[in-house]
Each structure stands twice: as structure tokens, then as C-alpha cells.
Inverse folding.
């Protein structure tokens, strides 16, 4: 029932949903889309668990559901509510959607070329998904660079973390659950710290525009 093509199809869905997160018009929409994108990640982990027979990946998928599908979006939505409308959390990105899509397409292509020469037993059947997972590092970096709102830049980190999660699952499906717990815990604490910093910036500077926050004032 489950096979490697399903893993690769879900990997393609990861790219599509990641692009939707980057192009979302509002922070609230980006939070819900990130939750959906993380649900695709859970699907990748679970289907990979069925294919490889790795019980560890089922634990990974359950942990990812709790942390990435539920907790992280909830934290970001709560932060957005605390910020309110005065700080302008929904600023338009620096690049228009067409240029953003073109940039991501180039990044994905480069990652596909990079993994084409990889000859590892654990990666032979899932090279498309491995390329997608590597591309998430660049997509996350793109999100950080093109977003004017520092609240929206948090999603760039979240996408990069999702990419590392998938890469680890593909290359080391038998890794202990403790590794996954460590990755998930780091992600939660990082998002909490970033959310607190964004809220304090909004509270004291009354703006989340990165262009307005590039100069330090004594």
C-alpha cells in the first residue's frame, strides 16, 4: 500500500505548501499554511516509516504533529494577537510573487542537481524528497531575506527546521526517538524565543518593519 513514490509525492507537496507559506498575504494565513505544511511533513515521516519498517519514524511523526502542526502555529498566532495591528505585522515582501516563485524554482533545481550524484543506500529511492528537504534550507533563507516583517521572518526559520527534520529522517530512519525529541524541543524553544523578541520589538518600537529596525538608537 505504501511505497517510495508516495513519499516523493508528499515531498512535492512540501515544496508547494512551503511556497504558499512564503507567499501568504498575512501572518495569520502563514501560520495556518505552516500548520498544513507541517501536516505534509507528518505524512512524509509516517509513509517513510511504513516503507522502511522503522517504528522510530512513527514516534517522529506523532511528535511532529504535536509540535509543528499544533504548538508552533498556536504560539505564532498567540504572538500575532498580542502584537495587535499597530505594529504592522503584515507588511508586503520585498519581492513580488512571480520573482519569489522563480527564485524558489532555481533553488529546487540546484538541489536536485546536487543530490543526483549521491549514492547512499538510504537515499536511492527518495532522491526527489531529499532534494526537496535540502531546498527547504534555501527556501527558509529566502523567506527571511525577502520578508520586511520580522514576524514573517520567523517562518523562514521554521521552514529550514522542517527541511532538517526531513533530511534526518531520510538519511537515518533508524535514529533513536531521543534525537527527534531533541530536534523538536529545540524548535519549540527557538520559536518561543523569537516570538518573545518580536513582541518586545513591536511593544517598544511600534513597528515590525525590518527596514525601520536596521539602526540602533541609544
Amino acid at each position: 500500500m505504501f511505497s517510495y513514490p508516495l513519499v516523493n509525492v508528499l515531498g512535492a507537496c512540501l515544496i508547494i505548501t512551503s511556497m504558499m507559506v512564503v507567499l501568504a498575504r498575512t501572518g495569520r494565513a502563514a501560520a495556518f499554511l505552516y500548520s498544513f505544511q507541517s501536516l505534509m511533513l507528518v505524512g512524509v515521516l509516517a509513509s517513510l516509516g511504513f516503507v522502511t519498517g522503522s517504528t522510530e519514524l512513527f514516534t517522529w511523526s506523532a511528535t511532529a504533529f504535536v509540535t509543528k502542526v499544533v504548538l508552533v502555529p498556536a504560539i505564532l498566532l498567540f504572538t500575532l494577537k498580542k502584537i495587535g495591528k499597530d505594529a504592522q505585522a503584515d507588511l508586503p515582501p520585498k519581492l513580488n510573487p512571480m520573482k519569489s516563485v522563480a527564485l524558489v524554482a532555481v533553488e529546487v533545481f540546484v538541489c536536485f542537481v546536487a543530490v543526483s550524484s549521491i549514492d547512499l543506500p538510504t537515499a536511492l529511492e527518495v532522491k526527489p524528497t531529499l532534494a526537496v528537504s535540502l531546498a527547504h534550507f534555501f527556501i527558509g533563507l529566502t523567506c527571511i531575506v525577502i520578508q520586511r516583517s520580522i514576524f514573517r521572518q520567523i517562518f523562514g526559520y521554521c521552514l529550514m527546521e522542517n527541511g532538517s527534520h526531513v533530511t534526518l529522517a531520510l538519511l537515518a530512519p533508524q535514529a533513536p526517538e531521543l534525537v527527534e525529541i531533541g530536534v523538536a524541543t529545540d524548535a519549540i524553544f527557538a520559536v518561543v524565543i523569537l516570538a518573545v523578541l518580536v513582541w518586545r520589538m513591536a511593544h517598544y518600537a511600534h513597528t515590525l518593519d525590518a527596514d525601520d529596525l536596521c539602526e540602533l538608537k541609544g
